[in-house]
Give the backbone structure.
Amino acid sequence: MSNGWYLISYNGKTGYISSQYTSKSKPNSSPSSANVSITEAIAIARRYIGYPYVWGGNGPDAYDCSGFTKMLYAKMGKTIPRTSYAQYSNCQKVSKSNLKAGDLVFFSTSTPISKIVSHVGFYIGNGYMIHAANTRQGIILDNINSNYYSQRYIGGGRY
């Protein structure tokens, strides 16, 4: 947040949202027990938008990409590996056309672009993911078909 504004990405565009339209309520405040539905996990993920990214972050106040997806899956009662590479290596692979809400989407964010997984997002449907992007943006909503992510897409996965 800078001067009361959050940087967000939506529908392939970047913009700002005033902090007056957001809240920093604890995302864990509903449902706290494991085995929430995918719909509830998406609602929980949405409440984290605006939270900071910290490399190696496992929460509860900051996450990296794989720490964020690991936490969401734990809320759904599933244990998944800690790193994006291990999450991809151990999931059931899903084609982009068969992605469902709650799946994971994997990318190579290295430069130059490689085929090695280095980033993961939580797919919420209709081409969108919520993910811990980087230290500048934190946790955001993003389109997996944007120019940046479509070039770096490696695959989808399901647990």
About this structure: The beta strands are 5-10, 13-18, 92-94, 104-107, 119-125, 128-134, 138-143, 153-158. The longest strand covers residues 119-125. The CA atoms of residues 41 and 72 lie 6 Å apart.
